[in-house]
Amino acid sequence: MIKFFKNFRKDEAGAVTVDWVVLTAAVVGLAVAAYSAIETNTNSLAGAAATAIGGQDDLTP
Q1: CA 32, CA 37: separation in Å to the nearest integer?
Q2: pTM > 0.70
Q3: What is the DSSP string of 20-59?
Q4: Which H or E run includes 8?
């Protein structure tokens, strides 16, 4: 039984999986943050464009 615990402690096969899970979570978090920033700025830009277009006179010669 002691040999099993010594081998289990030395085994690093699962460490790579944990690294990939952490890296993937970081990438997903950054993607969500970027999407949120882009969505907010796009909505404000669309509102400003609508206001500018709405303020134009129709059929100005």
Answers
A1: 9
A2: no
A3: HHHHHHHHHHHHHHHHHHHHHHHHHHHHHHHHHHHTSPTT
A4: helix 2-10
The pLDDT of 8-31, averaged and rounded, is: 87
Q: How do residues 20-61 score in pLDDT, each as one tens digit?
A: 999 999 999 999 999 999 999 999 999 999 998 888 777 665
Residue 59: C-alpha distances to residues 23, 26, 46, 56 (Å): 56, 53, 23, 9
Tokens 């796009």 belong to which residue? 42
Q: How far apart are CA 61 and CA 59, in angstroms?
A: 6
